[in-house]
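> example.struct
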């Protein structure tokens, strides 16, 4: 019985590895772009603006991993072993979901850093709220309408017509609103944790540097 359960878990994990790897890859695209766009001294050329648009097009892929909890529910029903679910399945999902959302948080922190650097610190909160709203819409489009980031190029008419039409319904608005609230709350928590970790790390490096110089 134990061997059968372990075999079932390995089978489930082997299937999940494919979409988890792909979703994490998509989630880290905006993170890499945020470093290139907002952490380096680059002029706002045409290439920069193109990268900025690609950044926003791919950004919903990072918090989108939160919705993959539906796969976890399915897998729990499949395995039906409390120990394997607790010790293997849930930790794997938590790591993947955390990594995706942390990519979202760091991407927005980098954007905030850029706004501060160009003297637009007063825009940070408004930009974050707008970004959360856009990503809530993007998550809905991705999960329920099955749109991908590249559909903005491959089928822009479909995205604009069907996507906008869906937003006018009552149920989509409720889902998007709930998604916005979840993104906002989780972001505020993770932003504080991430900035605290970054500050502590920088202080540690500075103290180590001072001791070395001494």
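> example.seq
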């Amino acid at each position: 019985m134990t061997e059968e359960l372990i075999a079932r878990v390995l089978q489930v994990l082997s299937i999940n590895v494919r979409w988890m790897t792909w979703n994490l890859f998509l989630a880290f695209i905006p993170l890499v772009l945020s470093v290139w766009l907002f952490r380096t001294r680059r002029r706002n050329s045409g290439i920069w603006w193109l990268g900025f648009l690609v950044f926003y097009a791919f950004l919903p892929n990072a918090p989108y991993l939160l919705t993959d909890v539906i796969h976890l529910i399915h897998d729990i029903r499949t395995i039906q072993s409390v120990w394997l679910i607790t010790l293997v399945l849930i930790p794997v999902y938590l790591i993947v979901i955390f990594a995706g959302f942390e990519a979202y948080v760091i991407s927005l922190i980098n954007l905030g850093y850029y706004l501060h650097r160009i003297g637009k610190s007063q825009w940070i909160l408004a930009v974050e709220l707008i970004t959360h709203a856009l990503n809530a819409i993007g998550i809905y489009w991705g999960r329920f309408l099955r749109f991908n980031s590249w559909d903005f190029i491959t089928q822009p008419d479909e995205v604009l017509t069907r996507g906008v039409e869906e937003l006018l319904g009552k149920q989509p608005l409720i889902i998007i609103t709930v998604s916005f609230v979840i993104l906002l709350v989780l972001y505020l928590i993770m932003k504080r944790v991430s900035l605290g970790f970054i500050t502590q790390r920088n202080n540690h490096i500075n103290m180590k540097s001072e001791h070395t110089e001494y």
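> remarks
Residues 2-213 form one domain.
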